């Protein structure tokens, strides 16, 4: 993977994590066990420290960055959707940040909270635990049902399994000129699309 030292600080990656070879890690980055970091994620620990705790996932094209003296943290089982930007903020345990959302400096997303796709969480804002925040700027609109919380946990577990699958089987290959007869499909894992839970 592209992994860079700066000012004597090298990224730290737990042996049980999976960081895709096309992700970029720079400097003071700390990746815990069971973490999944997807292709094209950019984790720039060249000013502030970046910490990703056990079982969290950082999906494709995410950016993590921060200011000197400030940590940017994703706690245990945090789930960061495709294209999200985290800057000098804290994502508490089991929280989810939706695709293309932006979380600004000194903001905090509470435990088991969800920030909707494309939301903008302004600097210093706190999203309470077990709540849903939507919009730009983000506003807290309601508490989360048990069904939605279970959906979130299931989705994160799917990424934890992807960590194991990637460590075991993902490798470069040459594409086939055509699909094999009876080509297998990935099995469904029982994850319900969030749109099905819209009013829960």
Automatic annotation (TrEMBL):
Gene: paaY
Gene3D superfamilies: Hexapeptide repeat proteins (2.160.10.10)
Protein's recorded name: Phenylacetic acid degradation protein PaaY
InterPro entries, per the entry: PaaY, Transf_Hexapept/Carb_Anhydrase, Trimer_LpxA-like_sf
Domain of life according to the entry: Bacteria
């Amino acid at each position: 993977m592209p992994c860079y030292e700066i000012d004597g600080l090298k990224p730290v990656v737990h042996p049980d994590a999976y960081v895709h070879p096309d992700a970029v890690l720079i400097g003071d980055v700390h990746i815990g066990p069971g973490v999944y970091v997807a292709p094209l994620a950019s984790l720039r620990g060249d000013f502030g420290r970046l910490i990703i705790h056990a079982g969290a996932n950082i999906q494709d094209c995410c950016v993590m960055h921060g200011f000197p003296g400030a940590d940017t943290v994703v706690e245990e089982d945090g789930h960061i959707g495709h294209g999200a930007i985290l800057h000098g903020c804290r994502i508490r345990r089991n929280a989810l940040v939706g695709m293309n959302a932006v979380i600004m400096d000194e903001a905090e997303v509470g435990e088991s909270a969800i920030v909707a796709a494309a939301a903008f969480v302004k600097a210093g804002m706190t999203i309470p635990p077990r709540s849903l925040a939507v919009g730009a700027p983000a506003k807290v609109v309601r508490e989360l049902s048990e069904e939605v919380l279970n959906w979130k946990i299931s989705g994160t577990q799917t990424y934890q399994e992807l960590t194991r699958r990637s460590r075991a089987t993902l490798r470069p290959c040459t594409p086939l000129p055509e699909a094999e007869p009876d080509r297998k499909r990935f099995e469904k894992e029982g994850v319900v699309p969030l749109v099905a839970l819209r009013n829960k």
